[in-house]
Amino acid sequence: WFPGRRSLPVPQLRMLGRGGRDPRYRRQMIDAVLHEALAIGRAPAGYVQFVDPAVNTLMLETHYGCAETLLDQLVRGRGDGTADAAARIRGRQVSVPDVATDAELSDDCRRVLLATGTQAVHSVPVLSSAGSCTGVITLHWPDAGHRTTPAQAEALALLASDTSAWLSWYHRSVLLDALEHLHRALTRPAP
Fold first, then answer.
1. What is the pTM of this model?
2. 3-state secondary structure string across 45-100
3. What is the pLDDT of residue 174?
4. For the chain, what percent of residues have pLDDT higher than 70?
5. Element (H, E) at 180
């Protein structure tokens, strides 16, 4: 179905390759992205979103420690005026050490974050090799004034790079392998 296509080797994953994870299992890898990010940032809450190319918007993939109100109003909605949206548009990490005073957050975003106990946020874009944003990793803290250290920001950038490499490989390998399998099964002559 895809003439000449060869299976690609799994990319070298510096952070996500640890712990015996199987990169063919999407849920396992996405959960690993979040848990690595939470550990790096020493954050009690966070989530991972990937861009759905069909609608060109960030879609929630997994979360931990986030109030349903926050997820419903900011993450599962349009997300305008959020650190996530800023990281996606700018293509760089966005830190909001004080949600109450940050001028770039929308009033709706600030209200929801504060009402759900989030005082500081950090969002990291997942950039493809071409530089387009394919996702965002976001961490939340209950204390204002929280800033990631340079070492944490570097580790989060490495995690985002691993995530991008894995996601690209997954789409070009696992998904296409599955489509080829279905094609063979559906076009096989009946016995």
1. 0.87
2. EEEEEEEECCCCEEEEEEEECCCHHHHHHHHCCCCCCCHHHHHHHHCCCEEECCCC
3. 57
4. 87
5. helix 175-187
CA dihedral 147, 13, 21, 127 (to 10 degrees): 60
Round to whole Å and give the CA distance between 33 and 66: 16
∠ CA 3-9-10, rounded to 5°:
130
Please state the rounded mean pLDDT for residues 27-56.
94
In angstroms, rounded to a whole number, what is the distance separating the alpha carbons of residues 109 and 103?
11
In this structure, which amino acid lies at residue 105?
L
User: For 65-111, what is each residue's pLDDT tens digit?
Assistant: 999 999 988 876 666 799 999 999 999 999 999 999 999 999 999 99
How far does Cα 97 stand from its chain's mean position? 20
| Under 8 Å between Cβ of 99 and 111 | no
DSSP state of 171: I
Collapsed DSSP state (helix, strand, coil) of residue 126: strand
Residue 63 near residue 46, CB atoms below 8 Å: yes
Rg (the chain; Cα; Å): 18
Q: How confident is the model at residue 16 (pLDDT cuts 50, 70, 90)?
A: confident
- Count of helices and strands (H, E) across the chain: 6, 5
